[in-house]
Amino acid sequence: MDQISPQSWASIHYSLLFSIAAAQIVVIYLLNNSTLPPRALGIYTIYFVAAALCAIAILLQMSAGTALSIDVAAIASLVTGYLLVLAIAARAEVLAGRLTLGIICLCACMSAFFLGNRSMFLLESCTIAFFCLLIMSFSIRSYTRDKNLGDAVLGFTATITFFGIAIANYLLFQSGDLQEAKTVLYALYSCAYALVFIGFLTSVLSDYQQHLIQLATEDPLTRLFNHRGLVEAVNVSLAVAARERLPTSALMVDIDHFSKVNDNFGEETGDQVIRQIAGILTRMARASDVIARIGGEEFLLILPDTSLESARILAERIRAAIDDQPLLVHRQSIHITVSLGIACTEGTVNLDNLTQAADRAMYLAKRGGRNRVASVEHKPVHITPATSRA
Asked: CA separation (Å) from 166 to 76, 80, 82, 172, 178?
């Protein structure tokens, strides 16, 4: 091992860096052609390409065997560090401060023309340490919001890089050996690039997993639950209702004459109407209520700890709110009405039976003239007539 020169060790480090960067470029190329490109993919692409080009430049400088007055490795590290900060900031949706960071990076790079090797090393290490602090902050922000393990890996990478820089500077002040400090620092950079690659892939996999979960449980048009998502969302409240013998109500909402909206105004307008109805239901429901779109123009609300009378009051409020205020779609005022059916049960809830009862009540409201609320009970059928319009 002692026969391997520092230049050979450096070549091994930069060869590793180049291999990892090349693999990253291939992965990014494949991701770029996917239907759901990851967030900040463009900036990550620039970062990985820059890392590969910098590795090539450093290897060429070392193979030439001539010492340059400019510290190419320091400039390469500063540029790639800045690009990594931009990429992680984009994932955290932090857009402010890019210009300031760019000026800091540019000034640090330009200093390579004026400073000696020791001073440039100190400037480089301080600047990269500052970048690490920013990356830690942005990664914490992203992880807190999305719970993406890849963001945690990136934050961990920035943390060990920060402390590794402190160790490299400590060695420099203790021994005065600049070459030893540089060897530690650039070995640390090589490991950091590898960890960034792992963190990036982990974040991509987590994003795709989350997307698949959303596709399975969420209606893409309204961002409400679909039927499967609704079943998963109400499990806890139904268990509480069964244990404490609480009432659970279901409210079925159907847009009246929706096919005429599509025929007269087009399907795009119809989609806008569905989105606006979904927005009204979301605003008028409680935080504990679960809303799902279960058909083309049908919505289902599950109302925990809600009696039939309370559900009827909410249903009437929804009906009146939609009837009284025409929807404005593409600068067109469209009068929309809905028919609503409600059902209620106490204690243990069979969700399918409760939904079917609300659906039967909704069809009663349809047959009763639409724009009204109906309920099916063991008592006689209750239908509230629509309020006459002026």
From this structure: 20, 19, 19, 10, 14
Residue 297 annotated as catalytic: yes
DSSP β-bridge partners for residue 344: 249
Beta-strand runs (E) in 229-270: 247-255
Tokens of 337: 């009405």
Which has the closest alpha carbon to 297: 308, 311, 281, 320? 281
Residue ranges of E strands in the chain: 247-255, 290-293, 298-304, 327-329, 332-334, 338-346, 373-375, 382-384
Phi-psi sector, 348: left (phi>0), alpha (psi -120 to 50), beta:
beta
User: Annotated catalytic residue: which of 124, 297, 298, 377?
Assistant: 297
Domains and CATH numbers, the chain: 6-215 (1.20.1070), 227-384 (3.30.70.270)
Full-model pTM: 0.62
pLDDT, tens only, 162-215: 998 888 888 888 887 777 777 787 778 778 877 888 888 888 788 777 777 777
